[in-house]
From TrEMBL:
Gene3D superfamilies in UniProt: 3.30.390.30, FAD/NAD(P)-binding domain
Stretches assigned to the Pyridine nucleotide-disulphide oxidoreductase dimerisation domain: 356-465
UniProt-recorded name of the protein: Dihydrolipoyl dehydrogenase
Additional free-text comment from the UniProt record: The active site is a redox-active disulfide bond.
E.C. no: 1.8.1.4
Keywords from the named record: Cytoplasm, FAD, Flavoprotein, NAD, Oxidoreductase, Redox-active center
InterPro entries with a match to the protein in the record: Class-I_Pyr_Nuc-Dis_Oxidored (IPR050151), FAD/NAD-bd_sf (IPR036188), FAD/NAD-binding_dom (IPR023753), FAD/NAD-linked_Rdtase_dimer_sf (IPR016156), Lipoamide_DH (IPR006258), Pyr_nuc-diS_OxRdtase (IPR001100), Pyr_nucl-diS_OxRdtase_dimer (IPR004099)
Length: 475
């Protein structure tokens, strides 16, 4: 016997669970289907982000940073640590507990908002504008019928051709978060967000980390000046970052992995790693959705085709998050989930792609919003730039972390903020001020005129805004 709902969401990641909650808040009878399982085969909603992405990686980044501080940073504060030890199993257990807290939190939110949760894989059976039949395949099979369907099935890690993930020697983000002992030599293919974050974790814990990146430029999507600063810090810390390489044969053995590649000078190289993390991007997850069975259109790259409002080719079927165009970011998925629920309710949900912040949680952190300097040059936009180093910030000195800078880019005529780029301590938190400012189309002068607490890292933001007009006060 089928169960009827106004809205059924397929996928319980950031886009899916948020869409379900917002739809329920708007008065719709709502169900969410998600198949993630915990170690006990119980439900683990939250998607890649909560289970093998954003949340566990930040837990390990924090733990590994504490370890590095204890081993190398505390001494200058007059704190001597003797007999420093490392228990990787306990560190992973804490990470798993953080994940579980988030899983449980989502289940609580479903209950609080009266969202019906179904543990299993959701797939289309049939349907049209009058309603869609969705099958839930799991421990107990269910049939749901919905007026509206929101697809939020996320993405999967992209594997190298002919080199499957075994999560023991060749690792995706999933395996990289579950290494049970510090490898002596760790290889990372791909110098993107995941590669740099995971490489940083295991380098801090004692691994010799080599990063192999095919592109000739480091962090090409980041403002070039900021990327150069970050590269300097990462290599000084001990990450060996090789750009412009061409990956050849990858041969897993019994206990290690051999990688052959050509370096940027054309020289053939061969290196043996204890573990290899492959982080070369992600692909949309439509496996088992039966998109073809109901005529749900995919684009040439395998994403679900949607318009600007996240409407698919089928009436009353919507899609959000990693499975559609746009940046694969959890917070982008959340905003789309809210916007779609509101559109179903006849409201005007809105997502501004120009003010979506990006963050890389390395140390120093990298965060940005808006246009980079190279983009403005390519587009022929006249702009002014202002920078301020954390070296000249009192709070950063007190923290003992003066790496990096804040950079403002503003329109040369109107002074409207076009982009803000940060490399340095707590960049992930500092970027929010820039996002708010850009949403309200503020000028650099607006930020320069706002009183910022002293001493605080946020003063570097004010100073960079002042620097756009060449009147920085502390540098």
């Amino acid at each position: 016997m089928s169960k009827n709902f106004d809205v059924v969401v397929i996928g319980g990641g950031p886009g899916g669970y948020i869409a379900a909650i917002r739809a329920a808040q708007l008065g719709f009878s709502t169900a969410c289907i998600d198949e993630w399982k915990n170690a006990k085969n119980g439900p683990a909603p939250g998607g890649t982000c909560t289970n093998v992405g954003c949340i566990p990686s930040k837990a390990l980044l924090q733990s590994s940073e504490f370890y590095e501080h204890a081993g190398h940073g505390f001494a200058e504060h007059g704190i001597d640590v003797k007999g420093l030890g490392l228990d990787v199993a306990r560190m992973l257990a804490r990470k798993d507990n953080v994940v579980k807290q988030n899983n449980d939190g989502i289940l609580y939110l479903f209950k609080k908002n009266k969202v019906s949760f179904f543990h299993g894989r959701g797939s289309f059976v049939k349907g049209d504008a009058s309603g869609y039949e969705i099958k839930v395949s799991g421990n107990a099979e269910e049939t749901l019928v919905a007026k509206h369907v929101i697809v939020a099935t996320g993405s999967n890690p992209r594997a190298l051709p002919g080199v499957a993930f075994d999560e023991k020697l060749v690792l995706s983000n999933t395996g990289a978060l579950a290494i049970d002992a510090v490898p002596k030599k760790l290889g990372v293919i791909g110098a993107g967000v995941i590669g740099l974050e995971m490489g940083s974790v295991w380098r801090r814990l004692g691994a010799e980390v080599t990063v192999l990146e095919a592109l000739p430029a480091f962090l090409g999507a980041v403002d070039e000046q900021i990327a150069k600063e970050a590269f300097k810090y990462f290599t000084k810390q001990g990450l060996s970052i090789n750009l412009g390489v061409k990956i050849g044969a990858i041969t897993p053995g019994k206990k290690d992995v051999t990688v052959e590649y050509t370096d940027d000078k054309g020289n053939a190289q061969k290196v043996v790693f204890d573990k290899l993390i492959v982080s070369i991007g992600r692909v949309p997850n439509t496996i088992g959705l039966n998109a073809e069975g109901v005529g749900l259109k995919l684009d040439e790259r395998g994403f679900i085709a949607v318009d600007a409002d996240c409407k698919t080719s089928l009436p009353n079927v919507w899609a959000v998050g990693d499975v559609v165009r746009g940046p694969m970011l959890a917070h982008k998925a959340e905003e789309e989930g809210v916007a779609v629920a509101e559109r179903i309710a006849g409201q005007h949900g809105h997502v501004n792609f120009n003010t979506i912040p990006w963050v890389i949680y390395t140390s120093p952190e990298i965060a940005w919003v808006g246009k980079t300097e190279q983009q403005l040059k390519a587009e022929g936009v006249a702009y002014k730039a202002g920078t301020f180093p954390f070296m000249a910030n009192g709070r950063a000195r007190a923290l003992g972390d003066t790496s990096g800078m804040v950079k403002f880019l503003a329109d040369a005529k109107t002074d409207e903020i076009l982009g803000v780029h940060i490399v340095g301590p707590m960049a992930s938190e500092l970027i929010s001020e820039a996002v708010v400012a850009m949403e309200f189309r503020a000028s650099a002068e607006d930020i320069a005129r706002i009183c910022h607490a002293h001493p605080s890292l946020s003063e570097a933001t004010k100073e960079a805004a002042l620097a756009v007009d060449k009147r920085s006060l502390n540098f």
